[in-house]
Write a structure and sequence with these properties.
The protein is α+β, with helices and mostly antiparallel strands. It is built from 9 helices and 16 strands. The strands form 4 sheets. The chain has a 5-stranded antiparallel beta sheet with strand order 5-6-7-8-9. About 8% of the residues have low confidence.
Length: 267
Amino acid sequence: MKLNWKQGVAGILAALALMPGAQAAGGSVKLNGTTLSAQEAWIENGTSYITLAAFARETGRTLRWDGKQAILEGSGLELTAAPGAIYILSNDRGLYVAEGVRVVEGRTVLSLRLLSQATSGALSWDAASGTAHLDTRGTVPAQADYDEEDLDWMSRIISAESRGEPLLGQIAVGNVVLNRVADKQFPNTVKEVIFDDKYAIQFEPVENGTVYDEPTASAVLAAKISLEGADVIGSALYFYAPKLSPVNWINQNRPFYMTIGCHDFHL
């Protein structure tokens, strides 16, 4: 999955485009050609959901609970999902769950879109029948395959810039780095963006040396989620901590986008 954050976004957006814009009256969900009951899978506000128990049964996998999270295993896939978490791990890939992992009537529930991403399955929408269909037959779930240099430097800058911030804020820092990689006014690799000094050193941890510290586990996770294409701050290119620097060039010159934790993000 080298630079998967670039390669995967188009496919994810294409799958999302197949989903209806609002809750489908009388809609249904199919998995590998089988129509599931409304108690096991449903369409809610334009998103199709399925219980992990039904997914495990229909795909021949096992599902267990370790006291903290659901663990799905088999057919080349190891997936963990903790209730309320904004991510799942799928073969050591960090996949973003914007709404958080849900539990409905005691059952762990994930979207078909997310399971399509985890299994490399084909997600489709039949508008005539109002049916969402996920087909995983014959697919090989992707394994974690991050570019080592990208993951290392992304983890280090996230850790140094946002140690102690919520996971969402750490992902946002990763987003800024990747937004800069994609923007023509900045260098085009993760490492070059982090060490960019064309006009001035861009990231304080580069100046004070903390970028070389061992990254935290949450920073590594946030780096993986960012590299997978998670987008939590749109096209923001800048961030800073107002409490540490109330008068800042960013604040005076770049449009404000949103605040996450102690950081303000600007376009």
